[in-house]
UniProtKB/TrEMBL annotation:
One of its GO terms (molecular function) is antiporter activity. It is a multi-pass membrane protein. Belongs to the CTL (choline transporter-like) family. Choline transporter. InterPro entries: Choline_transptr-like. GO terms for cellular component: mitochondrial outer membrane; plasma membrane. It catalyses: ethanolamine(out) + n H(+)(in) = ethanolamine(in) + n H(+)(out); choline(out) + n H(+)(in) = choline(in) + n H(+)(out). Keywords: Antiport, Cell membrane, Glycoprotein, Membrane, Mitochondrion, Mitochondrion outer membrane, Phosphoprotein, Transmembrane, Transmembrane helix, Transport. Pfam families: Choline_transpo (PF04515). The keyword Electron transport does not apply. The chain crosses the membrane at residues 198-218, 225-243, 281-302, 323-346, 418-445, 566-589, 601-628. This is Choline transporter-like protein. It is found in: Cell membrane; Mitochondrion outer membrane.
């Protein structure tokens, strides 16, 4: 990395971590931008946000700026009764003290008249029964028989200014204010589920790790049997999934509301609702049936190639057996990726919260200063206050006018680019390390006597000492393509409302092209890293040699390499399926024996999905050792064929078993060429 690049990285980290404030993600803020309920501040005992006039949240401004145009105050608890300012003024001391806690600091209800209080916006005109919802006081809405909306058992009430308010209007305002916190509501429920089930999720991931490790060890000693067991179990697991979906689909027949379509149901925050309709289970059943049919057809058409691929997996098992430490290297990759993800996430949070408080003019009548920025300290003496008597200077959002704030989105993209680069570098380091260890096994003429004592450590040392530049360069190329894909997705989101069909078509074409380019670069990089581990050349010559070596053996790539990848993918699918089924029955409380042990959750799919995704990543990590071993042996095998001829002067380094695989692939090539020749002669 160059000096300029390092300075740029350090500058972004310094600015984001010094100016960022993660509290903005956790705490609601009042009209002055102060955090409600933050420990160590005067508002520590006031964790809830109260709106002076919730009806103003029905304004379209909420959807534009995610801010209700009314004064917002941090309070200790939400109002629990209906009370107007006039009643509190004329009522008992208890009413005045109760009302005063929802006014701005320093307001004395006994000295000021209600018109003065309302004119200066010191107190709300009315209090209504409210409940705390995601740290915000929203009206305690309910419905009576017939669908009549009530607030605190009242359908209408006065607003303290002589007008009457319908509870339905309050409902609409609450919905609009809820737009601001709807996503946070779901996020908080998901976070609550994680706090309740994290130890069970951890146990599920540990089980997935043990199952993966046991499967890999068994594959080492019983490769042929385990592959066939794996194929049969995958078919059975998916078949059981189809059967279960059908039983759920049949059990909902005749149930009230089960025939509602997903489109009619719309987007619901309670995702368990979707499991109560038949169409959801029908969709699951169709998807699983399609996957099952595809796998069975592939197994039928690739049956000859599968036998050859099994033989190659057996050879890879021997290599793994001589380099057993390679099974534990994925733990190193996981740890390094965890560090990279943590750095990216923390920097992203600090960047997104490094904005300053922005205040804007909010008013009810016509005003030329409306929605302009303002300073709350000098607002009362400004022209805006003089020309617009009903205007207020309220906290609007976090932003800024400096160059740093203007280009904050670029810093976020740069942070994403750094994440991709570092993650790809860690992956590349693992690939070079494993391929170097397995290459040392292949090119050992007398196995295992000529294999180094610690092949993984030796290969890792060579990669860090000699090849960091090549790894960084290969990772850079891939990261640039990935960032371009992110930019295209960002543009796609921004242009969703556009009506230009040509622009949408071009954007879709570019997304497709860069997706294909990313896959190609990943494939080339992987094989280039293998050649780097074998010969120690730089990235570009290694990529050139690997590409043309593969092109000269393109048939063998199709026969051996890709079919082996398909079999290993079935292994990952099997582990995910087994762990996923057991986690589904556990978290949904369907196992009677341990029903009481299952945690009570808002969305039981949250830990299930986490366990499934985590199981796939764990299985991918362990199976990547075999995949890397197969790819390395394959390239070494192709190189061995071109360099040697099997004579005493130039003997093959491959084992007799691997030479037998070569004979089978040759016969497949000859059969294919014969078919092509016969078709051509006709």
């Amino acid at each position: 990395m160059g000096v300029g690049f390092k300075k740029c990285v350090l500058a972004i980290v310094k600015n984001s971590w010094s100016q960022g404030d993660p509290r903005k993600v956790i705490y609601p803020t009042d009209s002055r931008g102060q955090f409600c309920g933050q420990a160590g501040t005067p508002l520590e005992k006031k964790p809830l946000l109260f709106y002076f006039n919730i009806l103003k949240c029905a304004s379209p401004l909420v959807l534009l700026e995610f801010q209700c145009p009314t004064t917002q105050l941090c309070v200790e608890k939400c109002p629990d009764r209906h009370l107007t300012l006039m009643k509190a003024k004329l009522g008992s001391n208890e009413d005045r003290e109760y009302y005063q806690q929802y006014c701005k600091d320093g307001v004395n209800l006994t000295k000021l008249s209600p018109p003065e209080i309302l004119k200066d916006g010191l107190c709300p005109a009315i209090l209504m029964p409210s409940k705390a919802f995601t740290r915000r006081c929203l009206p305690a809405l309910g419905t009576l028989k017939g669908g009549v909306v009530v607030v605190g058992n009242e359908t209408t009430f006065t607003d303290g200014k002589g007008s009457s308010i319908n509870a339905t209007d309050v409902l609409e305002a609450s919905k609009k204010s809820n737009v601001v916190v709807e996503a946070r509501q779901v996020a908080m429920r998901i976070f609550e589920d994680y706090t309740q089930s994290w130890h069970w999720i951890l146990l599920g991931l540990v089980i997935a790790m043990l199952v993966s490790f046991i499967f890999i060890v068994l594959l080492r000693f019983l490769a042929g049997i385990m592959v066939w067991v794996m194929i049969v179990l995958v078919i059975l697991v998916i078949g059981y999934g189809i059967f279960h979906c059908y039983m759920e689909f049949a059990s909902l027949k005749g149930e009230p509301g089960s025939d509602v379509t997903i489109r009619d149901l719309g987007l619901q925050t309670d995702f368990s609702v979707y499991l109560q309709i038949r169409q959801t289970w029908l969709a699951f059943m169709i998807i699983l049936a399609i996957v099952e049919v595809i796998i069975i057809l592939l197994l039928i058409f690739l049956r000859k190639r599968i036998m050859i691929a099994i033989a190659l997996i057996k050879e890879a098992s021997r290599a793994v057996g001589h380099v057993m430490s390679s099974l534990f290297y994925p733990l190193v990759t996981f740890a390094l990726l965890a560090v990279v993800i943590a750095y990216w996430a923390i920097t992203a949070v600090f960047l997104s919260t490094s904005n300053e408080q922005v205040y804007k003019v909010f008013n009810n009548s016509e005003c030329e200063y409306s929605r302009e920025t303002c300073d709350p300290q000098t607002f009362n003496t400004s022209n805006a206050s003089a020309q617009c008597p009903d205007a207020e200077c309220l906290f609007a959002f976090y932003g800024g006018e400096t160059y740093y704030h203007k280009y904050l989105i670029l810093f976020q993209f740069y942070n994403v680019f750094l994440f991709f680069w570092c993650a790809n570098f860690v992956t590349a380091l693992g690939q070079v390390t494993l391929s170097g260890a397995f290459a040392s096994y292949y090119w050992a003429f007398k196995k295992p006597d000529d294999i180094p004592s610690y092949p993984i450590f030796s290969s890792l040392g060579r990669a860090l000492r000699y090849h960091t530049g090549s790894l960084a360069f290969g990772s850079l190329i891939l990261s640039i393509v990935q960032v371009i894909r992110v930019l295209l997705e960002y543009l796609d989101q921004k242009l969703k409302g556009a009506q230009n069909k040509f622009a949408k078509f071009m954007l879709s074409c570019m997304k497709c092209c860069f997706w294909c380019l990313e896959k190609c670069i990943k494939f080339l990089n992987r094989n280039a890293y293998i050649m780097i581990a074998i010969y120690g050349k730089s990235f570009c010559p290694s990529a050139h040699d690997a590409f043309f070596l593969l092109m000269r053996n393109i048939i063998r790539v199709a026969v051996l390499d890709k079919v082996t990848d398909f079999l290993l993918f079935l292994g990952k699918l099997l582990i995910v399926g087994i762990v996923g089924i057991f986690s589904f029955f556990f978290f949904s409380g369907r196992i009677r024996a341990i029903e009481d042990a299952a945690p009570s959750l808002n969305y039981y799919w949250v830990p299930i999905l986490t366990v499934v995704v985590g199981s796939y990543l764990i299985a991918h990590g362990f199976f990547s050792v075999y995949a890397m071993c197969v790819d390395t042996l394959f390239l070494c095998f192709c190189e061995d064929l071109e360099r040697n001829d099997g004579s005493p002067e130039r003997p093959y380094y491959m084992s007799p078993e691997l030479h037998e695989i070569l004979s089978k692939t040759k016969s497949l090539e000859e059969d294919r060429d014969g078919v092509v020749w016969r078709i051509g002669s006709r």
